[in-house]
């Protein structure tokens, strides 16, 4: 098969996943409303929809379609912690982190497949591995950026309260980690 067609097919598969995953997740959760959300939308200028997941752990993540998923565990941590967690996710959306990550993934995948098929399989696989490290490094940079943005919205002491809520002193970060340790995040804000 022509390598360009194969690359385009592979990338189309990635793009389909990128479009479908948020839609599938959205169907599973119900909308969550709070004055905190309206306040963050107003100060950030980012229009978000928040949905809630039945889960006792404290967690939140955002999707490319400006939807933020929060857990019941986080919603039960009080309005201040909820505001801080949402502000962090708004930071990811404000900085277009999902789009940037996806574009980087698209480029690295396309180039790697091209090299595997046309140049040398080893060179292509090595670029893929380097790509994974670059993606993880970028992900950690985006975490720091979202933290800084959240601090600008909710204030440092409020945000530190959220970060220390679930801090694990034994937590370690490597070049393959998607998130820096809470300790490193505290140092950077
Ligand atoms: Zn984050």
UniProtKB/TrEMBL annotation:
<dbReference type="GO" id="GO:0051603">
    <property type="term" value="P:proteolysis involved in protein catabolic process"/>
</dbReference>
<keyword id="KW-0862">Zinc</keyword>
<keyword id="KW-1133">Transmembrane helix</keyword>
<dbReference type="InterPro" id="IPR001915">
    <property type="entry name" value="Peptidase_M48"/>
</dbReference>
<keyword id="KW-0472">Membrane</keyword>
<feature type="domain" description="Peptidase M48">
    <location>
        <begin position="48"/>
        <end position="189"/>
    </location>
</feature>
<keyword id="KW-0479">Metal-binding</keyword>
<comment type="similarity">
    <text>Belongs to the peptidase M48 family.</text>
</comment>
<dbReference type="GO" id="GO:0004222">
    <property type="term" value="F:metalloendopeptidase activity"/>
</dbReference>
<keyword id="KW-0812">Transmembrane</keyword>
<dbReference type="Pfam" id="PF01435">
    <property type="entry name" value="Peptidase_M48"/>
</dbReference>
<dbReference type="GO" id="GO:0016020">
    <property type="term" value="C:membrane"/>
</dbReference>
<dbReference type="GO" id="GO:0046872">
    <property type="term" value="F:metal ion binding"/>
</dbReference>
<keyword id="KW-0645">Protease</keyword>
<dbReference type="InterPro" id="IPR051156">
    <property type="entry name" value="Mito/Outer_Membr_Metalloprot"/>
</dbReference>
<feature type="transmembrane region" description="Helical">
    <location>
        <begin position="102"/>
        <end position="135"/>
    </location>
</feature>
<protein>
    <submittedName>
        <fullName>Peptidase M48</fullName>
    </submittedName>
</protein>
<keyword id="KW-0378">Hydrolase</keyword>
<keyword id="KW-0482">Metalloprotease</keyword>
């Amino acid at each position: 098969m022509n390598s360009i067609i194969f690359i385009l097919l592979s990338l189309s598969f990635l793009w389909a996943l990128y479009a479908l995953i948020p839609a599938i997740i959205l169907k599973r959760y119900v909308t969550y409303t709070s004055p905190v959300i309206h306040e963050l939308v107003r100060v950030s200028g980012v229009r978000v929809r928040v949905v809630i997941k039945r889960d006792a752990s404290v967690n939140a993540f955002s999707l490319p379609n400006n939807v933020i998923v929060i857990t019941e565990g986080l919603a039960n941590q009080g309005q201040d912690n909820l505001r801080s967690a949402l502000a962090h996710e708004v930071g990811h959306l404000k900085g277009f982190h999902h789009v940037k990550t996806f574009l980087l993934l698209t480029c690295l995948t396309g180039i790697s497949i091209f090299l595997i098929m046309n140049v040398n399989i080893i060179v292509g696989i090595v670029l893929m591995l380097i790509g994974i490290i670059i993606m993880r490094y970028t992900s950690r940079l985006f975490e720091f950026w979202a933290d800084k943005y959240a601090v600008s919205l909710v204030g440092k002491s409020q945000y530190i309260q959220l970060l220390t809520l679930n801090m694990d002193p034994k937590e370690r970060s490597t070049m393959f980690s998607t998130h820096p340790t809470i300790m490193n995040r505290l140092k950077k804000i």
